[in-house]
Design brief:
Layout (H helix, E strand, L loop, with lengths): L1 H13 L3 H21 L3 H16 L1 H4 L1 E3 L6 E5 L8 H5 L9 E5 L13 H14 L6 E6 L7 H16 L4 E6 L7 E5 L3 E5 L28 E7 L3 E3 L1
Parallel strand pairs: 3-4, 4-5
Antiparallel strand pairs: 1-9, 2-8, 3-6, 6-7, 7-8
Length: about 240
């Protein structure tokens, strides 16, 4: 997972998406450091350390840095916590100047896959954007294909969302990639970027169809995760 995350960081850096690249570098190297700490085989430790050193010293990673230390806000969502709907997390950053949104989440997939309702969650995310106060005109979604027989249902469901958004004057651009990793990154054209450790699917299933929290996500219990917030003006490339 750590190696795949760093690989994604390189891809983002080559695409000049520097702030997202730095997030991936940090997370990937952090994962590898955890492996080094847990590994008892000294030969493996040495190989891992050499690889980490290589990534830390290569130009792509070295030229990226934060400008002043005020770049980062982290929100910790505890297990079974409530009060963390999309509105609570995102609306502080969705100012009236926001007209374009980018979403990366590999699990916007089939609605019936085990324990995941990410298509429904993506609809809720889009509903938040449509309600404002931002004036979103374009949403870019990058996700991965559902595995097996669920692919056609996934595609048709996304096309349905696309058509529904068109009725509200919003264009949804959909792209698929096999290389994005298990995370969700949202970027807004006002410079804010939000990364959620579990992606959009950090809510637990309601206890029943008619239980409190089944409709209002502020009352829905959450899985434990972290939310990291960055702004492009606090990152630089030399």
């Amino acid at each position: 997972a750590g190696a795949e995350t760093v690989k994604r960081a390189v891809e983002l850096d080559l695409a000049s998406r520097f702030q997202e690249s730095l997030v991936c570098y940090q997370e990937g190297i952090g994962l590898l450091l955890q492996v080094v700490k847990a590994t008892k085989d000294e030969a493996k430790k040495h190989r891992y350390r050499e690889k980490i050193s290589e990534w830390l010293t290569q130009e792509l990673c070295r030229d990226l840095f934060f400008s002043d230390g005020k770049y980062h806000k982290q929100i910790r969502i505890e297990e079974n916590a409530t009060g963390f709907s999309y509105e609570k997390l995102f609306q502080e950053y969705l100012t009236e100047t926001v007209s374009e949104v980018w979403v990366e989440d590999p699990y916007i997939r089939h609605v019936h896959q085990a324990s995941r309702y990410s298509l429904y969650n993506f609809v809720r995310f889009c509903e938040m954007l449509v309600k404002g106060p931002c004036k979103v005109k374009t949403i870019h979604l990058l996700t991965s294909y559902d595995e097996g027989s669920g692919r056609s249902k996934q595609v048709s469901s996304l096309e349905e969302i696309q058509q529904s958004l068109r009725n509200y004057g919003v264009t949804l651009n959909i792209a698929f990639s096999s290389s994005i990793h298990d995370r969700e990154i949202s970027r807004f054209n006002n410079g804010w970027m939000i990364k959620i450790g579990r992606g959009l699917d950090y809510f637990k299933k309601p206890q029943g169809h008619f239980s409190i929290g089944s409709c209002d996500f502020d009352l829905r219990r959450c899985h434990e995760t972290t939310v990291d917030v960055f702004h492009i003006k606090h990152t630089k490339k030399m």
